[in-house]
Amino acid sequence: FDILNLLDGYLKSSSPSVVMAATKLFLVLAREYPHVQADVLVRVKGPLLSACTSESRELCFTALCHVRQILGSLPGHFSSHYKKFFCSYSEPHYIKCQKMEVLCELVNDENVQQVLEELKGYCTDVSVELAQGAIFAIGNIARTYTEQCVGILTELLGLQQEHITSAVVQAFRDLVWLCPQCTDAVCRALPSCEDAIRDSEGKRALIWLLGAHGEKVPNAPYVLEEFVENVKSEMFPAVKMELLTALVRLFLSRPAECQDMLGRLLYYCI
């Protein structure tokens, strides 16, 4: 505690580098001496939150990294201050991504609606990377708050934007893998997705979903048939491999509809 008291003044320094150095030392002490952890985190909470809204991008990014480090051992420690981690329009991409990661870890029953509404706004950002990052963040939150998140993701499909549809389908694939109880809701949202997907990751995610759960998607064989017909012009080997695997899986549950196209695909592969 003597060391903590000695460093207290440095947390209020006008120099960002001094503040961050003192904060880092506080966190090291918290890790090395668990019995003082609660007191340490109380002392650094204010300076960290201030740094997270600093005009200095370097200071803000460093503070966000420290916040994520704390949340790794104390989930929800900053939950009451979740609005501090909402993104500003002028912030660079790397800071926005860090803030979205933090928001995912701060979600609870009291703030989930507000956090999801904020992330939903980012999904239509002009930056493709930010928009897809926000969609993946909603997908992560969906592991706990499935119904609300699946509803938002399904709504985003209606925009018929290529990068949005691709990211949503990828989020659906990961969600179905981890939360099988949401499979029916995801399968109901899949029809017509294929028209808006052009990138390899989106195609692979859609093909995997149709192969693994095609018995619940009425037009699954016909969507895969389109991929089979265009397989010669497909540029990505990973998509072709995914298509072969998916079609074999779907053949086991819907043989009559898949037999002919599976034969054509195998002939092409051989």
Quick recap:
This protein has 270 residues and is mostly helical. 69% of the residues lie in helices and 0% in strands.
Question: How would you describe this structure to a colleague?
Answer:
- With 270 residues, the chain is mainly alpha-helical.
- It is built from 14 helices and no strands.
- Helix 2 (16-32) packs parallel to helix 4 and helix 3 runs antiparallel to helix 4 (57-73).
- The radius of gyration is 23 Å and the shape is elongated.
Distance between the termini: 72 Å
Q: Rg from C-alpha positions?
A: 23 Å
Uncertain segments of ≥5 residues (pLDDT<50)? none
Helix content: 55-70%
State the shape.
elongated
Helix and strand pattern: HHHHHHHHHHHHHH
Number of helices: 14
- Average per-residue pLDDT, rounded, comes to 89
Largest sheet: none
Total beta strand runs:
0
Task: Return the structural class.
Answer: mainly alpha
Please state roughly what percent of the residues sit in beta strands, choosing from under 5%, 5-15%, 15-25%, 25-35%, 35-45% or over 45%. under 5%
Descriptive terms for the model:
270 residues; mainly alpha; 14 helices; 69% helix; 0% strand; elongated
Write the layout of secondary structure elements.
Elements: H1 2-7, H2 16-32, H3 37-52, H4 57-73, H5 93-106, H6 112-122, H7 128-141, H8 146-157, H9 162-178, H10 183-189, H11 200-213, H12 220-229, H13 237-253, H14 255-269
Helix pairs in contact: 2-3, 2-4, 3-4, 4-5, 5-7, 6-7, 7-8, 7-9, 8-9, 9-11, 11-13, 12-14, 13-14
